[in-house]
Structure formats: structure tokens, C-alpha cells
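Board work, copied verbatim: Glucokinase
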Amino acid sequence: MTYLVSDIGGTNTRLALADESGVNTATLMRARNDSYASFDDVLADYLSKHETGEIDGICVAIAGPVQGTSGRLTNRDWSLKAATFGAQCGAARAAIINDLTALGFALLRNTPEHIYGATDRAKNGQALVVGMGTGFNVSPTKRSLAGATVAMEAELGHAELPFPVATLMRDDLGAAAAEFQTYEDIFCGPGLERLHTVVSGQNLGGADIMAAFEAGDATAQRTVRLFARALGQLTRSMMHQYMPRDGIAFAGSASRGVLASDALNDFIDSLTAEGPGIVDPASIPLSVITDDAAALEGCRQYLVQTS
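↓ predict structure ↓
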């Protein structure tokens, strides 16, 4: 079987060939979305540069809502239909799934980097992927007794912030906390930048904020540590909402930047602070997905599992 797998984010699109054994990284192409008018153009470029042979199935993961066999990107004016890109590459099967759903399927083969929590406690087959890149979203996953993965779709980024997070923000920022109403208003790359603007009055990119944090800049320290504390409260809430005893895996540039820094201590202190709830935060393992191609493996897993 030959598969073509693709992951369309807000900034980049990745494509590669795959088979039953895994994703062929030698065939990986990364495309800047700004350089193309549509995914059709990206796919055409890939097909013109690679000898694909007969494609048995194609699966595309997108950063946006999916309805059946069609979907659209949240942060870019691209709409996709499985029938269209399937016909374009001559695939016998074509599927479109949410990018966080793809990461949920990828957990079967991907080993995220452990950052906190026990790994030897009782499991329940439930895990949660939390994506914080261009936007925010989650994918709850469940392993069946037969070993199959069920990865559920969500659009949590557009929901209202939990009360503990909203309270923390209001206590620190006062009236300026009104800027942050939804998950995606803060828990993503643009959200980190928005928070820094509120804190400092400066407009900096995420990488520059983290560099300033590492250099000891006072406003960047306040921004990143507040972000980490808020994320700790959010994680505590999600532990109770989803009961992911197999673990929570964070993905995306914002999570990798903040949780790989000294602000991890602020995150853990906030997560484990006294508060309502029955779940011991230390009993659930937390990790960070560091493989940028993990969603491609998730697309491959989806095609294998649904064949």
C-alpha cells in the first residue's frame, strides 16, 4: 500500500509518502502556505516533484473544522474536499481529518517528551492532545480493548475560558483581562504575542518574546510566567473534563517554547496548587510532542486503521 499524507497548518503544509511501516521522511516536502493560492496548488507541486506511483489512499489533516468529507482552515481562506484532492492524485481512497485528531492517532507510534507526572499509575485508555500553535484545540482519544484508536474532533479554541483561568487573568491584568475571552485568545502563538502587548505595550513575535524571557527581560518574564500559570490552571480543568489517565500531550510552538523554559516551574506550581477537584495532577503524565511530522504519522495511522 502506498499512501500520501499531508498536514496543513496555519503557516506551513507538509506532505509525504507512507506505507504500512511508516512515513517515508525522504519524501517529505514542507511548503509555505503564503506561496500558494490553494491546497490544490500545493498538491500539484508535490506530485510534479515526486514519483508517487499508484496511490492507494490520501489523508489530509487540517487546522480547522471538518464536516464529513470537506473542511476549511480556520486561519486561512482555504476550503478542501476529499473527492477533489483524491481525484487529483488518483487515490482510491481520500479522507480529511482535523489536525488534532491526526495527532491523537499519532500517539500510537509517537513518543512525546515527558515533562511531569507519574508514568506508572493505573491507565484507562484515555489521552488528550492539546494543540497550541497558530490556534488552540484539543483531541480526546480512547484506545479500544481491541487496540484501535478513537480520536474525537473538537473546536475548543472558540469556547469561553474556564472560571479559574479567567479569574487568574483578571487578578493579574485587571480590566485588560477582558481582551481574553476564549481559549484561543491566549493559549496559542498569537495569544502569547497578544498577552505580551497587553503586559508591555510592545508588539513582539513569539520567538522574540521567548528570547527576551531567556535574557531576563522583566516584561517578557511577566508575560511568559503568567501564560504558564494560566496554562497550569487550564490543564487542571482539562484533567477533570476528560480524565486522560494515559496522559496529556501538548503540541505546537507555543507549548514547546513555554514548557521547555524555566516557566515550566510556574506551570507546575499552578497546576498543583490547592483548589477544587478530585484528580491528583501528579497522577497524570504530561508530555510535549516535539516531532513536527507527527500529524503525518497520524494520517497514516488513520488510513491503516480504516482500510
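The first strand starts at residue 3 and ends at 8.
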